[in-house]
Amino acid sequence: MVVGFVADEVFGDPTRGHPVAGFGLLTGAVERHLYRDSRVAGAALVGVMVGSTVVLAALPGRRFPGLAGIAVTAASTWVALGGTSLCRVGDAVAEALEAGDIAAARALIPSLCGRDPESLDEAGLCRAALESIAENTSDATVGPLVWGAIAGVPGVLGYRAVNTLDAMVGYRNVRYRNFGWAAARVDDVANLLPARLAGSILVVVGGAPRRTIAAWRRDSAAHPSPNAGVVEAGFAGALGVQLGGRTVYPHGVEVRPTLGSGPAPGPADLGAAVALSRRVQRATVLVCAAAAVARPGVVAAVRRLSRRIAG
Fold first, then answer.
1. What angle is formed at CA 282 by the lines to CA 279 and CA 288, rounded to 5 degrees?
2. Kindly report the CA angle at 194 between 190 and 200, in degrees rounded to 5?
3. Domain that holds residue 238
4. Tens digit of pLDDT for each residue in 95-136?
5. Domain count along the chain
6. pTM reported for the whole predicted model
7. CA–CA distance from 198 to each of 12, 127, 182, 202, 206 (Å)?
């Protein structure tokens, strides 16, 4: 896992033949066959795509022991992570805004989130980018590492499959309100632990623990996502800015709750958010690697305790 994380830090996402892009193309083809305006059909898509990913990801563990198995785990972790590419785009948006190049910043926003960039002024671009960096710090790095620590390669790739499905069909628009329901709910469950680990790490590495905890406790529950609210409120508290407000998507307008207290974020705050995201990512890989190393001993201890209780 650590080798895969370092590969992401050095190289970012693979520039050609990215497996996640291939998964997206395959999912689109399966969706065209399964699509119905129903939750059952959407659940079938999740079952087919996530189930097949987990099964296929479990096969190398049996075929490649030792160093070959380590290489497979590292490669799987690398392709599942997206934290470095996220931070590079965030830095590029901040640099464009600091240079007064609104058009360049708008051109970069679709790489971060699904908002309508033409509707955003400088303040809106800063907020959109910062909120996306906060949420995707958890989705693109913390989530894969947590599930890798829990379940190895099937956990890493299974989580990425869930997260990709949510990004493709987990919308509240007319087409996906029912069909995307299962993908969105499974993604919510998969991110319950990663989002809260990210929030906890933000308290430690964010530089403003009391403010971060206060924003998390006060504001996160008002967010429509049970997980994004935790990390977005945590980032807002750590950086001393206020997030939320009117948000324009292609499918409509949402008025998001206020997160944090302070001024609206500017380009300098966006740069600080990128630096904070990198600290959270690096702390997460240390925590998850330690948890993965300790896991066999913990499982063995639980089994011994269970046998004693049963005996």
1. 135
2. 150
3. 2-297
4. 999 999 999 999 999 989 878 888 888 988 999 999 999 999
5. 1
6. 0.91
7. 21, 20, 24, 6, 11
